[in-house]
Design a protein that fits this description.
By secondary structure, this protein is mainly α. 84% of the residues lie in helices and 0% in strands. The chain is built from 4 helices and no strands. It is elongated, with a radius of gyration of 17 Å.
C-alpha cells in the first residue's frame, strides 16, 4: 500500500469522527430549536432548524465519503464517485458555514467538515493518478 493510500485511509477515518460530531450537533440543533423559541423568536428558531438540517446533511455526506475513502484506499478502482461526493461535502460545508454565521455563531465544526472533504478530494486525485501509472 502506497503512502498516499494510507493517507487517504487515515483522513477517511478522521472524517468519520468529524461526521459523528456533525451528526450529534445536527440532532441537537434540530431537536433543540423548539426550546429556543422563547429566547430567540421565530427567526432564531428558523435559523437553528436550518443549521440542524445542514449539519445532518454534512454528516451524511461525510459518512458516505469517508466509507468510500476507506474502501477505496485498499482498492483504488473502487473509489467510484468519491471525489464528486467529497467536493459536494465541501460545498455543503461552506453553505453551512455561511448560514451558521447568520445566526451570529462561530461555525467551529464547519471548518473540519470542509477541510477533510477537501483533503479527501485531493487524495482521491493523487491515488487515481497512481493507479493510472
Amino acid at each position: 500500500m502506497s503512502p498516499n493510500r494510507k493517507y487517504l485511509k487515515v483522513a477517511s477515518l478522521l472524517q468519520v469522527v468529524v461526521a459523528l460530531a456533525a451528526l450529534i450537533l445536527g440532532i441537537i440543533c434540530f431537536t433543540g430549536a423548539n426550546y429556543a423559541e422563547a429566547d430567540a423568536g421565530v427567526l432564531g428558531v428558523l435559523v437553528v432548524s436550518i443549521d440542524g438540517i445542514l449539519y445532518l446533511l454534512c454528516a451524511a455526506l461525510s459518512f458516505i465519503t469517508a466509507f468510500m475513502g476507506i474502501h477505496g484506499a485498499n482498492r483504488p478502482s473502487a473509489l467510484g464517485s468519491h471525489r464528486l461526493l467529497a467536493v459536494l461535502t465541501v460545498l455543503v460545508g461552506i453553505v453551512t458555514c455561511v448560514v451558521s454565521g447568520l445566526g451570529q455563531t462561530i461555525p467551529v465544526l464547519d471548518a473540519p467538515v470542509v477541510l477533510f472533504g477537501l483533503i479527501a478530494a485531493i487524495l482521491d486525485t493523487i491515488v487515481r493518478k497512481e493507479l493510472d501509472r
